[in-house]
């Protein structure tokens, strides 16, 4: 892939009850990213979001955000891929830069989930599933992920306490991230004793409900140093998809969309799993974090939890993972999470991650997931050579 | 712009009460387009849609449609720009091809609007406006367009009967389009006597409510003849945006987003207004068709209606416009209309437009509009040289 680079990043804190509108959230993150790039205007915007039509009865976020950011007139539209919307918006921006049509592009994601009832948010999340197939069956999005957790635990004889190591890791990392939603150390026992949400998933297995936005300024690698001394190359931006409904798939304990997207990304970026210094995975539910470690090539099927348990995924381990807290503890405003991952990786690879910094990180990988493993954007980032 | 070409097109009929799901509609159009290109698989899909989250409580159309079309696994996401969603999806597809990342790309739009109450559809359309500014004021989307019509008629001293020439033209053209929603010849008097919807706009000034989908297969111009003997070049694909709300703008009788997008398109395609052989404009309301003729450079402000009245826009006139019936009579399933325009132009430029054919058409221009002139994709197509 010809070169695209990240030259500016911005993120709001993730909070529940922010009281902020979609526009206020995106403008906060977008303004930070634009200022971080040392500019005051971009050539185009791609806004990732999943639920604004359903929850806010607001579409047309492209023009809305362009105007609110003082960029009225530029090409701008919304990009949606369920909970991976922020990741696919980045993919759209990468293509815009590579097309040669737009030189400096803002991409990001925004979601406002707080201030609604649990049934409203639950119904909103189910828009990621095929309504015609399972929409009226009564199962929830958490319930479908619980089916995966149950099958995974049964098939590979992995106890819940092993899986629970993942949220424990994320909460530990989030303690150092001032923008994280949760600053609370938890133990495996806390996870196992937390209230049951959808058997076997308990409260601390699940990411929370929050508001947030993250944004990135992209440009060609060639021009990146006009904007920053620490550009981060997007060495691969791929998207895999899969059949939407679980029962259409031969095996629910692995996500083919992940495996497809990451295989293509490794090839494009000329990177192997062992080259990855920092990893961001989509741990909307504990079991998904574990499965991602396997599907992305870091562990064999059924053995992912050992990486989380044994310190390999800790910030001082061999494979620092979800170093700002991941979806579980940084927070998961669904349409924004894919953009948060990329912003956090960019900070790591430009040595600006503060207390979350992993020393000498040069290669990062982010995996975002829309639906139940249905749409998976994967990005591989590299510290750009000088 | 390096070359991108259309090598396959598909369209469902536009109907009210189709009884078909979003998936069934898009699969019908997509399958036609893929078969028209002589292939059985594409490398990626971009699905334009505006209201699925609100009306169908269904998002994630990218993966859903990829799977339903037998293309599971490929990159796919939804693209939204209000009523211009089909047009911006095409823009996303053009960038995907130009990026070099994807060789054969399906783009299109789908909307299902029938089967809902008028208040539901009315609320859905208002998602194109800024909810925070005017969402709760009681004005409707038609009402906002009525304000434009009133101001336009007053400022330029254009009587309603002059504007009414536009829907009359569209209904005339649709008589020859088997996929049009309305096959009914109307007169200026019919328009003026039709029921008032939002003063001064009457029923026949307004496009209807319908279901439909349209799709296109895109590839590089270089490879286009591997798929078809009659490729159509996309010589320009631009998007202009504007402040979302009418009262933010200095002049509501002209759409800056249109003027910006078309100026850039003319420049990129090296085409002047007088070179355009076939024109498709976004006549969701009669006055918008007239304003488009002006904003796109075919008439001075206030004089657009004369082109419609005096036969210039007729299929045998100097500037054949909305040759399949336009939004008014072909129909306006909002997220699909921008894709219908491009499919219809591609048929014209490949001499496959049947009874709607304009002889020797070589250059076509399509303008789609999201919101009240807020997001405007413009495409210039050319019959590809051999």
List keywords for this structure.
homodimer; 386 residues; alpha/beta; Peroxisomal Thiolase, Chain A, domain 1; two-stranded antiparallel sheet; 18% strand; globular
Brief summary of the model shown:
The structure is a homodimer of 386-residue chains. By secondary structure, chain A is an alpha/beta fold.
Question: How is this structure best described in words?
Answer:
The structure is a homodimer of 386-residue chains. Helix content of chain A is 37%, strand content 18%. Chain A has 15 helices and eleven strands. In chain A, the strands form two sheets. Chain A has a nine-stranded mixed beta sheet with strand order 3-2-4-7-1-8-11-10-9, sandwiched between helices. In chain A, strands 5-6 form a two-stranded antiparallel ribbon. In chain A, helix 1 (22-36) crosses helix 3 (61-68) and helix 4 (85-99) crosses helix 15. Chain A is globular, with a radius of gyration of 19 Å. Chain A starts with a strand and ends with a strand. The interface between A and B is large, with 67 and 67 residues. Strand 3 (76-80) of chain A pairs antiparallel with strand 3 of chain B, so a sheet runs across the interface.
Topology:
The structure is a homodimer of 386-residue chains.
Chain A: E1 4-11, H1 22-36, E2 44-48, H2 52-56, H3 61-68, E3 76-80, H4 85-99, E4 104-112, H5 118-125, H6 131-135, H7 141-156, H8 160-163, H9 165-174, H10 188-193, E5 196-198, E6 201-202, E7 211-220, E8 232-241, H11 256-269, E9 278-280, H12 286-295, H13 304-309, H14 326-329, H15 334-349, E10 363-367, E11 375-383
Parallel strand pairs in A: 2-3, 2-4, 9-10
Antiparallel strand pairs in A: 1-7, 1-8, 4-7, 5-6, 8-11, 10-11
Helix pairs in contact in A: 1-3, 4-15
């Amino acid at each position: 892939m010809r070169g695209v680079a990240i030259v500016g990043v911005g993120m709001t804190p993730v909070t529940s009850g922010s009281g902020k509108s979609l526009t206020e959230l995106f403008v906060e993150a977008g303004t930070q990213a634009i200022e971080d790039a040392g500019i005051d205007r971009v050539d185009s915007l791609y806004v990732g979001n999943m639920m604004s039509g359903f929850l806010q009865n607001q579409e047309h976020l492209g023009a809305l955000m362009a105007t609110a950011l003082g960029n009225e007139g530029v090409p701008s539209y919304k990009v949606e891929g369920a909970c991976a919307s922020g990741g696919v918006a980045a993919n759209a921006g990468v293509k815009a830069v590579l097309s040669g049509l737009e030189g400096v592009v803002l991409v990001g994601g925004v979601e406002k989930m707080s201030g609604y009832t649990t049934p409203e948010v639950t119904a909103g999340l189910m828009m990621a599933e095929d309504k015609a197939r399972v929409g009226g069956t009564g199962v929830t999005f958490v319930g479908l992920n619980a089916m995966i957790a149950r099958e995974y635990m049964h098939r590979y004889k992995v106890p819940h306490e092993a899986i629970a190591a993942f949220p424990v890791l994320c909460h530990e990392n989030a303690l150092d991230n001032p923008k994280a939603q949760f600053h609370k150390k938890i133990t495996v026992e806390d996870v196992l004793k937390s209230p049951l949400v959808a058997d076997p998933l308990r409260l601390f297995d699940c990411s929370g409900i929050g508001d947030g936005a993250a944004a990135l300024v992209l440009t060609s690698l060639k021009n990146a140093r006009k904007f920053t001394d620490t550009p981060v190359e997007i060495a691969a931006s791929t998207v895999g998809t899969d059949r939407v409904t679980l029962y259409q798939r031969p095996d629910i304990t692995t996500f083919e969309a992940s495996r497809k997207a990451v295989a293509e990304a490794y090839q494009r970026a000329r990177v192997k799993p062992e080259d990855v210094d920092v990893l961001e995975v989509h741990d909307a539910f504990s079991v998904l974090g574990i499965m991602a470690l396997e599907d992305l090539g870091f562990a064999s099927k059924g053995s992912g939890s050992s990486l989380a348990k044994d310190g390999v995924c800790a910030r001082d381990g061999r494979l620092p993972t979800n170093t700002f807290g991941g979806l579980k503890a940084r927070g998961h405003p669904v349409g924004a999470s894919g953009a948060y991952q990329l912003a956090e990786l960019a900070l790591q690879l430009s040595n600006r991650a503060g207390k979350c910094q992993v020393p000498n990180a040069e290669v990062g990988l982010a995996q975002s997931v829309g639906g139940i493993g249905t749409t998976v954007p994967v990005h591989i980032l590299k510290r750009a050579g000088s």
